[in-house]
Amino acid sequence: MLKIALLSCAHTHAAAYAGILAARGDVDLVVADPDGFGDVPAERVVGSYQEAWDAFDGGPDAVIVTSANADHKELVLEAARRGVAVLCEKPLATTVADAEEMVAACREAGVVLMTAFPVHFSPAVETLRSAVRDGALGEIVGLTGTNNGKLPEGRDWFTDVSLSGGGCLVDHTVHVAQILDAAFGEPTDVRAVANRILSASRAGEGAETGGFVTLTYPSGVVATIDCSWSMPDDGPTWGGLTLQALGTGGQLTVDAFADHVGGPGQWLPYGADLDALLLEAFLDAVRTGRTQEPSGEAGLRTVRIVAAAQRSVATGEAVALADV
Amino acid sequence: MTTPPGGPLAVGIVGTGGIAGAHGPGWVEAGASLHAHSLDGAEAFAETFGATVHPDLDSLLAAVDVVDVCTPTPVHAEIVHRALDAGCHVICEKPLTRSLEDARAVVEHAERAGRLLFPAHVVRYFPQYAAAKAGIDAGRIGTPAVLRYERTGQFPRMPWFADQEASGGIVMDQMIHDIDQAIWVAGPVASVHAREHVAASQPEVRTAHVVLTHTGGAISHCRGFWGPAGTAFRYAFSLAGDAGRLEYDSAQDSAVTWDAVARGGAETGGSLLPDISGMRSPYAEEILDAAAAIRTGRAPRVSARDGLVAVEVSLAALESLATGRSIPC
């Protein structure tokens, strides 16, 4: 049995992770809910991080950090101090400096650090990565990615910039950015625009709810990510993620959450459980001690893109990634 | 200057390449008597649409009330000025002109002359875009916030299209439609930034991304693609506002779908113009709107000023491509 502590119920993914881990049978799980959300089903829920650290003889084998973004850093650094493997929710951190410190601490401690990008495990996304790798689209010239969703409900910290680090630029840019990172490496510059017209009355002060992030790669390949919370509240599903690649050999569009049975007002997803695949990879990394992708480094690189995007929104000009 | 009141409009097509063939049926439907002048292909056009061929522009201008400019972009301005000087109303294929100076000059000329100058932004007459615009005007999405437009076609075979100096490239030729749409839906543009990438191995294949920030706060992303040989024409949009979202994709939302067996050996080649076989022709709608505006004096769906603004914003995108900077409008 692996001893796992889920640290915080702040993130909406916490309940899904707890449910999957509880059902596995090879995990002894304790959930820390210091904010008292009270809606993550688990056999053992404790009211503080300290109780979670102390819940197992000899401490946990691994922790999963599902706190508000701004709290990731202290929890990951604590895991590094204790020599415990970490899966940290995305975005890895709210600043580049924090992300760098977290990655460095885990590296120096020899601790596994992975970033929770479930879409990395989507079979559709793997099809796109392999098409890029194998040259199936010829020379790729450009891409358009979308990660649109509803503004999260019941978790107001998502648009409290002191806890989240920002609005949709922070929450939704990184998923597509990580797929692009795995396929194309790091961009040279980032240009972004943002606004707050969607859900303006619900979003916290200063949190953008709509945005485009345009990345330019060393080859000149151009990619734009629509990171807006533009799925209406009455939409049939939470949102989705698409990525379209265009090349001299044709076009490929993948829709990571397309697998569903529909009907008027109906949306029954049947696709691969990406959260379960992510946790499987993480538990494998815990057992072997070898980090898998998406790594902490991948998380850091996407945080750098977000920071560049935020600076671009502020300056109105493209920002070189090297300057971030 | 030959048309009696209520009689057929005398219309001169100048330039009888691909787009003239798209305009022809609309003029026939409008009951126009057609004239044509072209450096090449006027006879074939005349045979198809029953036009009188003129050996030079002056002879055509003397015979018509309306000139429909279907030439390559670089000579639009000269022909529009001559047509206005001759007292004609003018339909002009998009982009209105290649330069901002020329666009301002033709628009001001038309205003001085009291003649219609109608930029043929046909996408405003595509029923999908017209339905979206009507829905948005009726409040279906609330305040427009985040708009995405995509346009995909096979790279143009006529060499002047790919000549950036002549045509303005993919931004001014293809994407100007979506720039015009974004402005139609979300209003004037405050600033523009743009990126383009041309395939090193096959320079005809290219993509452009243009992001508009509107003065009202909305943001728009326009994505153009000139694809390899065989690329089917495709257009799509997703328009999100604070009260809803409207979406369309020509590759998915079709009234008619043939399966591969039924299609048999039919050629599935690429195209520069969209397949409009399943819908009321937007080209005919466009021409009939222009003809009605000429006959009645009412404003058509797209004004000369709209054409000027589309040129201005497209040129700002080209400047952004050249400098890497954001360009205020």
Automatic annotation (TrEMBL), chain A:
Pfam family, one: GFO_IDH_MocA_C3
Gene3D superfamilies for the chain: Dihydrodipicolinate Reductase, domain 2 (3.30.360.10), NAD(P)-binding Rossmann-like Domain (3.40.50.720)
Domain GFO/IDH/MocA-like oxidoreductase: 126-252
Stretch forming the signal peptide: 1-18
Keywords: NAD, Signal
Domain Gfo/Idh/MocA-like oxidoreductase N-terminal positions: 56-116
One annotated GO molecular function: nucleotide binding
The protein's name in its UniProt record: Dehydrogenase
Native species: Brachybacterium phenoliresistens
TrEMBL record, chain B:
One Pfam family, short name: GFO_IDH_MocA
Record-annotated Gfo/Idh/MocA-like oxidoreductase N-terminal domain positions: 10-120
Domain GFO/IDH/MocA-like oxidoreductase: 129-247
InterPro entries assigned to the protein according to its UniProt record, in alphabetical order: Gfo/Idh/MocA-like_OxRdtase_N, Gfo/Idh/MocA_oxidoreduct, GFO_IDH_MocA-like_dom, NAD(P)-bd_dom_sf
Entry keywords, A to Z: NAD
GO MF term list: nucleotide binding
Ranges that cross the membrane: none
Superkingdom of this protein's organism: Bacteria
PANTHER family for this protein: CONSERVED EXPRESSED OXIDOREDUCTASE (EUROFUNG) (PTHR43708), OXIDOREDUCTASE (PTHR43708:SF8)
Protein name: Dehydrogenase
Phylogenetic classification of the source organism: Bacteria, Bacillati, Actinomycetota, Actinomycetes, Micrococcales
